[in-house]
Structure formats: C-alpha cells, structure tokens
Amino acid sequence: MRDERVFLLMLFANLLIAVIYFLWYMVFATIFGKKRTKKYKKDNGRTYLLRFVVMLLCPVIGPLLFLLSYLIFKLPFWKKADLEDVIFSKERVRIQMKADEERERNVIPLEDAIAVNDKTRMRMVMMNVLKGDIQSSLSAISQALKVKDSETSHYAASALSDELNKFRINVQKMYTELQKNPEDKECGEQLLDYINPFLEQQIFTEIEQKRFVHIMAEAADLFYENNKESLTAKRCENICLRFLEIKDFDSTEKWCMRLEELHPQELAAYTCKLKLYFTTRNREAFFETLGALKKADVVIDYETLELIRAFS
C-alpha cells in the first residue's frame, strides 16, 4: 500500500512538473515574447509539446533527462567568451583562383599593342584592361583613342567617358560638401586621396587639369589651417607635383616650403624642391638643396641616389 502511494505521488509530481513546464512556455511565448515571430512561436510550440508528452510517458526519467541536458549545455559555457584577441577581418581571407592560362599567355601592355597596331591584339588587350582596374589605366586607354581601328577607339572612348564623368560628379559632391563643412576632416582626406590618382595620369584638358589641381590645393589649404597632421608627406608631395605639371611654379614653391616645414626629415621635402629648381633652371638653389640632402639623415631611394651621382 505504501509503495502504491509513493508511485502515485511520483506520477502526480511528474504530471505537475510537466504541466508547469508547458504552461510556463505558453505564458512566456504569448505574454513576454511579443517580439517573437509567428514561425518561431510555432516551431518552439511543437518542441515544448513533444517534451511535455515525453515527460508524461516517461515519468521521472523524462524530466531528469531534460534537466541534465540543460545543465550540460549551460554549465561549461557559464562564462562569456573573451573575444578581444579575435579579429574578424576580410583582409586576412585570400581567395585562391585558378589562373586563366590562355588569357595570361596573350597579355601584353596596351601601349605595346597600340605601337604594333595589330587590330586583333588591340581589341583583346583593350577588353582585358576594361575588365580590370580601369582607374589606374586611364592614361593608356586615352592613347587608344588615336588608333585607326574604330572598334578599339570606341571601347576606349566609352570607358574613358564613363570614368571621367563619374570622377567629375564625385569630385563636385565632395567639394560641395567640403565647402559646407570646411572642418570635415574625413571629407577633405577623401577628396585629396581620390582626386590625385586621376590627375597624375594627365588625361584632362589643360584648363580642366588646372581646375582640379586648384580644388585639390584648396582642400589641402583647409587642412594646413586647421588639421596639419592630416597633411602627410605623400599628400604634400602630390600637390607639389601637380602644381609643377601645370607650371604654376609659385604655388609649387609654396607647397615645397610647407612640405619642408611639416616633414623636414622626409625625402620628398628635398626631391620636390630639386624637381622645381631643375624645371625653373635655378642652378644655385638646386645645388644648395642637393648639398643639404647629402648632409641630411634621410633614407635615399635608388632614383635620388642616381641623381646625386649624376650631379656630384
């Protein structure tokens, strides 16, 4: 009689636990889980219903099974993972693609194809160029405008026109934004870094080239007044060279002085002045700068070393 009572008590306790378990889910899902989707509630409802049935059919063992599985899942992961040293960077992913041997075997510089004047090769090379990084090949593409093959020149004209129109629109947007917010450091840096790769290829008309150079210099002037740390040696060097290309020697000298002021230990502070004085044929200033470069504690590249040897 006593064993029967214990058995019935266990069944009643098991039923009570199963009912409380299922009702807790229903209350949690309907009242506290308003943000849950209908699909989520439906799928979870099936799961809890099956567990409820298992608890009824397997007294004691069923609830203990679910309790132990819950504890086994939770206890090893009670502490939050320290992800400070974990870096999820796409730059670290290298995708290995199979080489296109047939295409690579026939790749030659676009300039060489134009010089040979082989229609088939020119068209193939032009298509390969258009599939790659067009922005860095605009100068070569502009040369293809002069070839006799109408199809090649058409490809070149279309690609060049599209890229230059995009460039003009983007520069105008950045320049307008910079005029509205002169202290917007990010906008100014973006303008300087975006405009230079196009200008150094010298693909614009003389008037348009000068216009964009002055836009570039205007952005740099704002940095010189407010955020000099943003004017890196490379950016200053780019401005010097762009002014030198349009033969604005006064502006070139001004930026050469600024480059020397901001980055006196950089090689560009000397090479820009050397290029300026060589172009303007200022012999005295050229050799004075060359002498200062020899004495300076600056790392010299191969090109500058050859220059020093030639004029020593």
Strand content: under 5%
**What percentage of residues falls in helices of 4 or more residues?**
over 70%
> Main sheet?
none
- What distance lies between the first and last C-alpha atoms, to the nearest angstrom? 117 Å
Contiguous runs where pLDDT drops below 50 for at least 5 residues: 103-108
> Which fold name is given in CATH as the topology of one domain?
Serine Threonine Protein Phosphatase 5, Tetratricopeptide repeat
CATH architecture of one domain: Alpha Horseshoe
Structural class: mainly alpha
The average pLDDT value, as a whole number, equals: 76
Q: Give helix and strand order, one letter per element, not per position.
A: HHHHHHHHHHHHHHH
The number of helical elements comes to 15
Radius of gyration: 36 Å
The CATH class of one domain is: Mainly Alpha
Shape label: elongated
Task: Tell me the number of strands.
Answer: 0
Would you kindly provide a written description of the structure presented here, covering whatever features stand out?
With 312 residues, the protein is an all-alpha fold. Among the domains are: 2-72; 232-312, Alpha Horseshoe (Serine Threonine Protein Phosphatase 5, Tetratricopeptide repeat). Helices cover 72% and strands 0% of the residues. It has helices spanning 2-32, 38-57, 61-74, 101-105, 110-116, 119-131, 138-143, 150-180, 185-199, 206-226, 233-245, 249-262, 268-279, 283-295, 302-311. α13 (268-279) runs antiparallel to α14 (283-295). The longest helix is centred in the first third of the chain and has 31 residues, at 2-32. The N and C termini lie far apart (117 Å). 19% of the residues are buried. Residues 103-108 have low confidence and may be disordered.
